[in-house]
Structure formats: C-alpha cells, structure tokens
Amino acid sequence: MRSVYFLICIAFFLPKSLYAAQTTEKIWTVLGLNTTMGKFSYQLEPQLRQAVRNNLFGEFLTNFSGSYQWSSSWQFSLGTTSINAKPLGGPMLHEMRLWEQGTYSHPGSLWLLRSRLEQRTRQDSNEISYRLRERLLIKKPLIDKLSLVVFDEIFVNLNKPDWEITPTIAQNRVLISLDQQASDRLTVGAGYIFQTVFSHPLHIGHVASLYWQLYFPEQ
C-alpha cells in the first residue's frame, strides 16, 4: 500500500509536459564505409530514419568525414552532413551541417568521449544554428567477438535561429546495443535508443537501431 501511495505522489509532482509528450516508434539504419591511410581515416555513412506507423519516411542523412589520429588518445575530425527530412504533414526540408569533432579515449580503457560542434543551415532560412553535442560511449567486450555498447549523448543549442524549436538543452539520446565483429572487415550491431527532444510538446522516440560498419583495407 505504501508503494502505491509513493507512486501516486511521484506522478502528481511530475511535470505536466510529460503527460502531453508525443511518442513515436522509429527504425534507424546506418551503413558506414571506412578506410584508413596512415594517420588519416575517412568515413562515408548514409542513414535512413523511418517512423514505424504507416512506414513513414522521416529522414535520409549522409555523413562524410575525414579524421586525423593526433596521438594514441586524441583524434580530430572535420565532416559534413546532408539531411533530407519530411516532417509529418509538412514539406520536404533540406539541412546542411558542417562540423568539427574531437574524440578522446585512454589506451586500454572501455570508454570514449566525443565532442562535436555543428554549424547548421536550412534551405528556408539564412540563419545559422550552432549546436554542441557531447557523447560518452562505453564498449564492454563480452564473448566471441560480441560487445555491449552504451552511450549517452546530449545536444546543446548555442544560439536560437528562427527555425529552431528546441530550448538550450535540445535533445538527449541513450543507446544500448550489441556489436558483433562478423569478420575482420565487418561489424554489425542492433540496439535500442531512447530519444528525448525537449520541444513543446515534448517528443519521445523509441528507436530500433540497426547498423553495419565496413572497413576497407588500409591504403
């Protein structure tokens, strides 16, 4: 009885925005094509994101980046992202992103910290959005080339262009997945992402994440 009373109290004090949250089930598929030349590496990564209900098209993204391995701990990257998005009930939108990224991982450790600064533009506006993304990733080897992967990523708006609908703390994503090294050149994975977009109303995404990373021989 006390447990029931406690849960009722928690529900009473929860922000009202949680009750009005929009919830969407999604499938995100990613294909990464990777190659390395000495201390330099390059990645082409198309992504398709769909809503489950009615098989709605959501977004198609293409990431392209080049990275430099500065040391055993630090890697620095420059990249672009092209996005074609179809909001529900709205016209097709195109967004371009230029981004700079630093990745830190201590040799032999299980965790990795990634910081990315994005400059975002849209076809329907001349204003530029600046956004910071911070991700902490942990990868724990299990058995037979199988690994548990967990990350938490937060999105922070550094300015407020007219088309941005989220506040300073814009979004949070938490992933839990399993990676399988299928071969020396291929890693496959599947997992779940809990996505929170702090718009009005709040948006909650339950995302099935499927991904393939293909590594070409070093040039």
From TrEMBL:
The keyword Signal applies. Residues 1-20 form the signal peptide. Keywords: Signal. Pfam families: DUF2490. This is DUF2490 domain-containing protein. It comes from Legionella jordanis. The lineage of its organism: Bacteria, Pseudomonadati, Pseudomonadota, Gammaproteobacteria, Legionellales.
